[in-house]
Q: What sequence folds into this?
């Protein structure tokens, strides 16, 4: 186990913990089911950057939504689509993949009917091992489902897959939303 702290102006802003282990023999083998999204990249809506409406960092990502955009008043309790970097990296490391996963908005935001603030309270990402690095030009499939949401908090679980639908990460998040 490794623990790290991100400190800014003398205050802890982020705490990160990593757990690492070596492969070993096991009598149990359960293969992950492929992630099957409701459509391909060609059936998506591209999220375009709109100054002062969409966060600045989104310019670095090519988002393709299969579900509604944030603040569209969706009835769906899931968020689904594809993402890749706007500028293709040589390779996609675990750090790149963290960025691609973190770039997605909280799963509750498409359900909102007007702009509101939201923030991660906790976030856990598990990389499926052995890690199969996606190509730099590859769209990463993403499907997050709200497990529960009430009283301004939401709990969501997401599956992240390469372009073949093979699971490469699992993300779990607790989100606070103010709306």
A:
């Amino acid at each position: 186990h490794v623990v790290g702290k991100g400190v800014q102006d003398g205050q802890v802003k982020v705490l990160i913990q990593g757990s690492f282990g070596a492969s070993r023999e096991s009598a149990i083998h359960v293969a992950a089911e492929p992630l099957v999204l409701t459509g391909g990249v060609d059936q998506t809506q591209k999220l375009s950057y709109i100054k002062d409406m969409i966060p600045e960092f989104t310019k670095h990502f090519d988002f393709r939504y299969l579900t509604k955009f944030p603040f569209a008043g969706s009835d769906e309790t899931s968020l689904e689509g594809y993402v890749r970097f706007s500028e293709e990296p040589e390779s996609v490391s675990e750090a790149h993949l963290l960025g691609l996963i973190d770039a997605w908005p909280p799963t509750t935001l498409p359900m909102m009917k007007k702009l509101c603030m939201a923030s991660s309270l906790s976030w856990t990402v598990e990389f499926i091992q052995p890690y199969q690095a996606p190509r730099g030009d590859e769209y990463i499939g993403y499907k997050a489902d709200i497990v529960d949401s009430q009283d301004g908090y939401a709990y969501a679980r997401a599956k992240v897959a390469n372009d073949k639908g093979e699971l490469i990460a699992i993300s779990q998040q607790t989100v606070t939303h103010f709306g």
About this structure: The mean pLDDT is 92. Helices lie at 94-102. The domain at 39-178 is CATH 3.10.129.10 (Thiol Ester Dehydrase; Chain A).
